[in-house]
Amino acid sequence: MTSIDNPFGERAQKYWDRRYDLFSKWDEGVETDEVGLFSVKPERFALEIGALLSGHTVLDAFCGIGGSAIAFARCGKRVIAVDIDRDRLSMAKHNAEIYGVSERIEFIHDDVMEAYPKLSFDALNIDPPWGGPDYFTKTRFGWRDFSPNPLPLIQMAIHSGIAVAVGLPANFSADELRELPAETVLRESRDATRVLFRTAYYPPVN
Which domains does the chain show, CATH number per domain? Predict the structure, then answer.
């Protein structure tokens, strides 16, 4: 049954129903669009990734409406949040103000694949677009199913020796993980019944 207060339609209902898991301060005026609602990580998992990532300055690639950037800032990090969608970036900034961490986040409107070489950071969080809620219909999800393919940027970051966290759908192909170094650790984020997503974490080289 579709709730009358869901502005995004039936397809988004299950995401809308767990909006307080996405942002505990939802009722204080959190802004999103349909894509942002599909894409943002639940707050507690974003905080776990923020605590896991070493480094003082995190590049949050494809930051969307800001859920992960806000969590990283709450973990005491400086964050560079980049997104190509100007409207979503504006929402991210607004949402960061709700959480009182906007001064710790630099918001940049750009294509992160092009902006990357110009930025200075010592950790990377990359959660590239999965293609909306239909991603789970694929039997095996691979690097080329992302748009854009993030693998070149991930490999560049790993080669530089910084910590890297990569958001992956639960149906991501185990074979394609071989593109990452053996030191990469795969973490699962679950609700009561299933794996919601995975995070491939590569520790920094000291």
Answer: 52-202 (3.40.50.150)
